Amino acid sequence: MTRFLKKGTIPELGFAEFISLAAMMMSLVALSVDTMLPALSEIGRDLGAVDNNSSQLIISLLFLGMASGQLLYGPMSDNTGRKPAIYAGYGLFITGCLLSLMATTLPVMLAGRFLQGFGTAGPRIVSIAIVRDRYAGRAMARVMSFVMTVFIIVPIIAPTLGQGMLFLAGWRAIFMSFLILAMLTLVWFACRQPETLPKEKRVPFSFKQIMGTVMIILGNRSAMGYTVTAGLVFGFFLGYLNSAQQIFQELYALGAEFPYYFAFLALSIGGASLCNARFVLHHTMQFLSIRALISISALSAGFFLIALWNHGHPPLWMLMAYLFATFFGTGILFGNLNALAMDSLGKIAGIGSGVVGSLSTFIALITGTAIGQSYNGTVLPLTAGFFMLSIASLATMRWAEK
User: Fold this and answer.
1) φ, ψ of residue 3 in degrees (nearest 5)
2) Does the global pTM surpass 0.85?
3) For the domain with range 206-402, which CATH number is right: 2.40.150.20, 3.40.980.10, 1.20.1290.10, 1.20.1250.20?
């Protein structure tokens, strides 16, 4: 590729710099979730939350905003170009950070978190479009592999960073770090990333086209079935994210050690994602997904009985072993279900990916929030939620394949 796209335009980013920028933009979601986890209880107390479970909404509202935003940014970037859509997303994310940073009540905090989620959907969705604009085939797969490596690293280190900022400067410092990171990344993007969608390739923005795509997916048994399955799987993982801080820091009294346990479990998902890249060379995605769901169902049923025998408070090592094995299966599912949902949507892949992502996130938001809000000082709601949603996922996947 040439050093300059056109005479007088921004110099083209090198491969390493482009990977770094794209990874930073896409990682805003993971940072906005995982860095917050150690601080949820303290934020709830400071802002007058009615009970500890109310603090979980700080996580849920971000996903609600992200689910809403995913429908907008893809078509918007196709119409205005990639850079204006990213600027709009960053603007909303920064506004949400400022609102949360200055919040004195829980409703104001939740409004800020919704804006953060709605905003961060822009960099996340449009960055993938920019990768697609610049690369294709194996080159694109190589780029996305490097970017996904960051997704494996961020959940491992983010809670530790959050715990450190909470200890040194209080929970508002976490939002200040989001603000600084967003502004630095925005300046980096504005100065170094050229527009990748020429005017002659742009298409009109159309709500009618979006709704038409929604109706196509709703009428496509395979796409709809796998979208619902992906939402249910993401739902039990979101239920874990909502209640992890209470389980580890309160039920098991781990205190400042919580980030290390969280990081250990994140390694399981990351390892599964890497293994899945090899598994799909020898097995179909359907085969791997069904085996993963059966394993999660069996593990959850067995562990629920163990937890019940221990009055909802099994030994920590047993909980960690159960979650590690379960999350390995979850990592396999993350790697396959979205691809299966998109497999029959080749002609509408652009808008289709936004619709699939939005619908699955809405489903996950409902089911994951229900699991989190059911937390009662034991691991029983979490384990039961894993079991019921994995069984429902199996049934939905079987329906999708008929």
Assistant:
1) -70, -30
2) no
3) 1.20.1250.20
